[in-house]
Design a protein that fits this description.
The structure is a homodimer.
Chain A lengths: L13 H28 L4 H12 L3 E2 H8 L3 H13 L3 E5 L7 E5 L1 H25 L1 H16 L5
Antiparallel strand pairs in A: 1-3, 2-3
Helix pairs in contact in A: 1-5, 2-5
Chain A binds a DNA duplex through helix 4.
Chain lengths: 154, 154
DNA sequence: CGAAAAGGTCAACAACGTTGACGTATTCTG
DNA sequence: CAGAATACGTCAACGTTGTTGACCTTTTCG
């Protein structure tokens, strides 16, 4: 447990590391804030957001695939899914190849909402990248990729 | 609502912005993973972590201050607080100036755990920064600060 | 002394997700 | 073709968390 005083000059000191964590939080909060408010205004939650997000990127996704992707039970998925359908944001249609499967896709309105949510996030990222400059952007990506490498990257 | 097709060359394209969001998630997950496991092994939750974290940075904090800081009710705080106390990770002592106030501080063991948790995160950050280089680190900070600026920075 | 502040605690709720158990089409297979 | 398996849907019982409300104690302060 001894605080090994590495004589080798570290690239980042403790203060910087602490700041890294703090800044990470604030940044995340900033990026999530607006989308969250928009969702809440419609009585939607993060689960709905996740659904919209994945369906937007993989139109025609089946309920089962979505379930696996989000790692939740079908029961947990069922309610939000129907609410989105009721609100006319998504559509469920039997698959041609297999009538048991229900393919999910966004309606025009659903795509619009998803775009708005994503757009809010993009705005913040774009602004930050623009303000920081292309070089900083490159550095940011590099660091983030390194960090992400430690997890179960997709 | 119209997707304004800006002809002005953006510093980041849609693909990059999408990636930014994804990478952000993975990075966060990576940084949280280990601490979470350590906590879970002791039957502790994120709330406990948050408490340890703030108390570590502000020793002698009062229950009320902590409550305000974490933005939860005293009832929600009470249970985790006592569990931490029972596990000998924190100590509650009456304040000299005001016997109504209970000052919270980490015990040696508590500080040790907090240090371990923080240490795990620092390890990842340090590794990422080291691998990415000082320049990338600088860029990373710049972008993160810009992003965080949009939120209620502390 | 009496009001106010800092805490603690019991109890009723509400949100969210989980497991378990069935029920219904639909497709696949021996 | 009959039965097993698949993809979903749904009712129900829980467990976890955090919230609000009400009440009580100790301590401070006008």
């Amino acid at each position: 447990m001894s605080a090994k005083k590495t004589t080798a000059k570290p690239i980042a000191d403790t203060a910087a590391l602490n700041e890294a964590w703090r800044v990470m939080h604030f940044a995340l909060r900033a990026v999530i804030a607006e989308p969250d408010r928009i969702l809440a205004a419609r009585g939607l939650t993060r689960m709905h957001h996740r659904i919209l997000f994945f369906v937007a990127h993989t139109p025609g996704m089946s309920v089962g695939e979505l379930q696996t992707t989000l790692d939740v039970t079908k029961q947990a998925l069922n309610a939000p899914l129907r609410q989105l359908q009721t609100q006319g944001l998504i559509e469920l249609a039997k698959a041609d190849h297999d009538a048991r499967v229900r393919e999910i896709r966004l309606t025009t309105e659903g795509a619009s909402l998803e775009g708005k949510l994503t757009g809010e996030q993009h705005k913040l990222f774009a602004a930050a990248f623009a303000a920081a400059g292309a070089e900083a952007h490159e550095g940011w990506r590099t660091v983030m990729r390194e960090l992400a490498r430690g997890a179960g990257m997709a």
